[in-house]
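Hello Y.,

Per our agreement to keep a running log of every chain we model this quarter, I'm adding this entry. I've kept the format consistent with earlier entries: sequence first, then predicted structure.
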Amino acid sequence: MKKIGFIGAGNMGGALITAACRGNDPQDVIITDYFLDKAEALAQELGCCVAKDNAEVVRSAHYVTLAVKPQVLSSVLREISPVLKECIAAGQPKVLVSIAAGGTVESIAKNLDVDLPIIRIMPNTPVSIGKGMILITSDVRGEVKVSEEQFEEFISIMHAAGEFDRIREDGIDEATVATGCTPAYVYMLIEAMADGAVMAGVPRDKAMKYAAQATIGSAAMVLESGLHPGALKDAVCSPGGSTIVGVAELEKGGFRNAVIQAMLGAYYKNIELGKSK
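Predicted structure for the entry above:
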């Protein structure tokens, strides 16, 4: 396997690193972080390798993954650009992978002094348990393009992260609100449902388990039945039953509109992040 490196071991970077180590020999995974002790602690847990700085990751790995915040993406790119150029000149090809929201392939390339294949992925935190939904894209910028072999090889390396969907880059900001942002909303929903169950008299540990497992089952029903979520909702709502009363209370509180506005707000923020690059 070609080695994969990660610059950044925060929440999202750590989740991807965990998936990479689960699906491959951890010794083929090289990681670093601005806070090196964070990378060292994760490497000790997973058995992967720690690099002392970003340049070492670039020199050691074929796939270099930038798991950094959008606000620092440009500075990290400018820092590693000379090292990438040096490696490519020495006959060591590299593929750059970015997870930064709003950072287009074009904006990434503008911060580099070398032309190389660039992949963008937008993962979500469930990649750490192999249940992620990962968007993957690139563009046709420049002379050096991402080949089908490179796409397939990267997905193969990261197969333990979950499901990949290849889309056009101009649709990634919209799609991310339904993948990257959704886990936070679902966690809030599970917590709220568990709180309600506790108010009704269910012990906290059981309330959390019941709400989480019901959420897993409901999501699986949508994916596996092929039925519209509205139809599945109607099937649960017996005439005069308790569920339809709960649905009415959610509607009274503006549940659907709140969710829609959350998705749109996240989308507009993605656009804003892209404009700042």
